[in-house]
Design brief:
Blueprint: H1 3-17, H2 21-38, H3 41-44, E1 48-50, E2 55-62, E3 69-75, E4 80-85, E5 90-96, E6 99-105, E7 118-125, E8 130-133, E9 138-142, E10 149-155, E11 165-167, E12 174-176
Antiparallel strand pairs: 1-2, 2-3, 3-10, 4-9, 5-8, 5-10, 6-7, 6-9, 11-12
The structure holds fe (ii) ion (FE2).
Length: 179
Amino acid sequence: MSALMDFVAEIERVIASAEGERQILDRLDHRMARFAAGADLIGRYKIVWNEARGDGEVALYEDPDGGIQLYLCGWRPGAAVEAHDHATWAIVAGIRGVETNTLWRHPGDGMRRHGPLERIETRDIGPGKVVAMPSDTIHDVANNGSETAYSLHLYGRDLAKLRRYVYDLATGQEGPIPW
Ligand SMILES: [Fe+2]
């Protein structure tokens, strides 16, 4: 079995034995960092770039039943994606360059959905760094550096099958995902 499929099998084992999302994230984040650092992903898999947007990705594994999705992602200098959710948990591990992630939350008790988003933290995800995001996380992504950033992204479910939103930071208003 390939290193990639070994890793996918390891992820599936962790998910099957974990009790809840927090445990999944706690048990997978260092595994993601290790695989991102050691698997020569940039040399082995060819990213499909959207040159207009300056970002790109290649699917490394997409569970055919709507489960985990693993992507190698790239961000040219200056590339950015507006604040959005995933409607599932997600883990990002840096490979080369720096992918800056800013995490946001809705104010209040969760019932009041609108109002300016509150910034939780900004994390520079370079080589060896990882950020684990529970399902209710809102984040935006940017490459503020001068070299292309590469990262490994893992999602708990097939994003294309989920109801997801982008967010206006000033109002908290949701909108449809434009990509
Ligand atoms: Fe995202």
